[in-house]
Design brief:
171 residues, mainly beta, 4-stranded antiparallel sheet, 13 strands, globular
Length: 171
């Protein structure tokens, strides 16, 4: 089963390393993070990123056999240090083969996900999706889909994404 069981090594420097479990290793610093809706073949942990008390985990096949993809955002409880409050995010226009969540990043109240095979601009043109956290409710929403100004089939825009503050970048 390659559903993807990963363990988060949480260090005082607020870094998170997701390591696929080969041999059960446990210490005081480890916490198992797994999607609540995981299925065989999901490849949970395709991409990961952490910023402060938020971690984002991409999964390639979260919506069944065709790789539509999704991302899961987790929040660390600052009192207990436990990661929880999972929220699953999927593109509102998800289609089979989009590979949404193959690349993810998070910064402050913004998260970015790539869908490098999304084909609105032609086969494999690609898109990125930016989500904003509502500071009142804590929910992530307000999806904004972005494509390159000169999008062409096969560009694979969204293959790599990163966000820092108010700026996002994609390849």
């Amino acid at each position: 089963n390659d559903a993807g069981t990963y363990y988060a090594n949480i260090y005082s420097s607020n870094t998170l390393a997701l390591v696929k479990r080969q041999v059960p290793l446990f210490s005081d610093d480890e916490q198992k993070i797994q999607s609540s809706t995981i299925q065989a073949g999901d490849k949970f942990g395709t991409s990961v990123f952490i910023d402060g008390n938020y971690a984002i985990v991409g999964t390639k096949d979260s919506t069944g056999n065709a790789p539509k993809g999704a991302a899961y955002i987790y929040k660390r409880n600052t009192t207990t240090g436990v990661w929880g409050d999972e929220q699953k995010i999927e593109a509102s226009d998800k289609q089979a083969g989009d590979n949404f969540g193959d690349s993810v990043s998070i910064s402050g109240n913004y998260a970015i996900m790539g869908a490098w095979c999304e084909d609105t601009g032609g086969s494999g043109a690609g898109s990125i999706y930016i989500y904003k956290r509502n500071v009142s409710t804590g929910e992530w929403g307000d999806e904004q889909k972005i494509q390159s100004n000169d999008i062409q089939p096969g560009d694979l825009f969204g293959n790599n994404v990163s966000i820092s503050g108010d700026y996002g970048i994609s390849r």
